[in-house]
Write a sequence for this structure.
């Protein structure tokens, strides 16, 4: 180690005086001997293959991908995607975390996109790649997925009621209100990508002294037919009588 440091200092001095070229100084005083670099590259090339998991982003415009099996010793990952199984594939940098939202148009129901990932290790300025993962296909279903209620807000000063939600692979969200006869009726229909809906409870058929319950569901329209998610119950609201 001491000998190597002395050589590095000597080469640095010679480089300043212009006696040796810069490339020669870097090759000797850099990471180590050529043999050491080759051995390190070989070890890096034996990185295991990662495994891909999928998560469709809220809304309809993107797909989020992450790895549920990361590779020990990897410095990062590159992701490749294509709309055709046989390619061409396009590279997307995933980074150290191994997750990435791919901002491409989500395929229609029944269509697929294909992806695989490769782990790499940095040896100097080079990326040495390990084994690639299997090529996985993501195919959105016809029904919306993962519909969940994320909150309700009541603005008493403006008599406004706001519901928020999250959903994947959906076109519209329907909010239904329970009527006096015990049946639910569609109250409003909103684009799923908006993730919220607001309306006044000072009108629109609301009566004071009543309690109202709500529920929602999402749907997709495919070839003229609607495919619905399950219902999700929403918080209710009690409207007090005027003093």
């Amino acid at each position: 180690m001491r000998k190597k440091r002395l050589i590095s200092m000597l080469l640095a001095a010679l480089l300043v005086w212009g006696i040796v070229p810069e490339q020669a100084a870097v090759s000797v005083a850099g990471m180590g001997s050529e043999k050491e670099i080759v051995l390190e590259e070989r070890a890096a090339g034996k990185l295991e293959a990662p495994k891909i998991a999928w998560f469709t982003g809220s809304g309809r415009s993107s797909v989020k991908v992450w790895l549920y099996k990361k590779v020990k010793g990897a410095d990062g990952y590159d992701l490749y995607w294509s709309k055709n199984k046989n390619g061409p594939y396009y590279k997307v940098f995933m980074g150290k975390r191994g997750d990435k939202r791919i901002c491409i148009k989500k395929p229609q129901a029944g269509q697929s996109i294909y992806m695989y990932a490769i782990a790499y290790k940095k040896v100097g300025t080079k990326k040495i790649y390990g084994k690639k993962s299997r090529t996985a296909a993501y195919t959105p279903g016809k029904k919306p997925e993962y519909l969940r209620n994320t909150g309700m807000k009541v603005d008493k000063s403006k008599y406004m009621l706001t519901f928020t939600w999250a959903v994947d692979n959906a076109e519209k969200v329907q909010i239904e209100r329970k009527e006096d006869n015990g049946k639910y009726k569609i109250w409003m229909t909103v684009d799923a990508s908006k993730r919220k809906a607001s309306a006044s409870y000072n009108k629109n058929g609301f009566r004071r002294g009543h309690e109202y319950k709500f529920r929602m569901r999402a749907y997709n329209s495919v070839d003229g037919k609607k495919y619905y998610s399950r219902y999700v119950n929403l918080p209710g609201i009690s409207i007090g009588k005027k003093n």
Notes: Residues 13-31 have pLDDT under 50 and may be disordered. The first strand starts at residue 51 and ends at 56. The chain is about 15% helix and 50% strand. Helices lie at 2-17, 22-29, 34-44.
